[in-house]
Amino acid sequence: MTRRKFVYSFVGTSAIAAAYPCYFEPRWLVVTRPRVDLKRAPLAGPVRILQLSDLHLSWCVPLSLIDSAISLGLNQKPDLICLTGDFITGLEDLSTGAYARALSRLSMAAPTFAVLGNHDGGIWARAMGGYSDHGAVEKLLEQSGIHLLHNASRRVQIQNAGLTLVGLGDLWADEIEPERAFSGLDAELPVVLLSHNPDSKDTLATYPWDLMLSGHTHGGQVIVPFDGPRFAPVQDKRYVAGLGAWGSRQIHVSCGVGNLGGVRFRCRPEVSLSTLGPSPSFPVTTRQHSLTPTKTTLSTRARTSSSGSPMLSSN
Predict the structure, then answer these.
(1) Predicted model pTM
(2) DSSP letter string, 103-120
(3) Beta strands 249-253 and 211-214: pairing type?
(4) Whole-number percent of the chain with pLDDT over 90
């Protein structure tokens, strides 16, 4: 090989290596399918919950990626949809209505509920140069037909399976109000808790809940071989990605759809479909943050829903 060919080969290989974490992997969506056993208050029948988290609309997360994640999620035919915060990254302009139109596809397909994340406005976001309050994101969700559970609860009935959703304010925004969120709760039903930051679990130890759906961590975003995640902004590093037990309860942390800085490595953007089972014999599938077992890519075929139309009732 001549010197010139060697230089060209080196430059080309380097460009490809750089393109993978900066372009290809951040757009390479994956479907995960955790199976959750609700032991304290079993469901009467299975319920499929689509979870999308950390959409992070920004200069490095285009609306087209978010729209692709929505399409992939809806192809799974969920009974219920939960969005666990960080819809934006900074001071994104939401006035065009394009983002609301994309999100409205979710609420038109199934009952859709959301909580806010630290980037969605408030004291933390303001300190980081973002919105000082979450009025812009609240308006976005309202235009999208999505129910915001900000320290509030709602009972959901899907055929003969009833459960309660509880949504909390963000931990870093100092907006968690558990007394208000759990007020009047029917604890005999299974309780699915939506909280952006999984570290909030410690504040909620004395309250009745069975499964927490969280995000915030981006799954580590960059997973270094033999070292682990480089981005994991939580105190409890046991809960960075996937499904894990916390005593008799379970916590699922989504790797999220978007990212910060435009980079992902060994941590693909995630669309999650959790199936909540009706009996103690229901199997549980876990996933570690640094591995990718049992995943379905964009080529997956949608499953046909066997459940009826979900219905809502006030708590």
Answers:
(1) 0.85
(2) HHHHHHHS-EEEE--GGG
(3) parallel
(4) 72
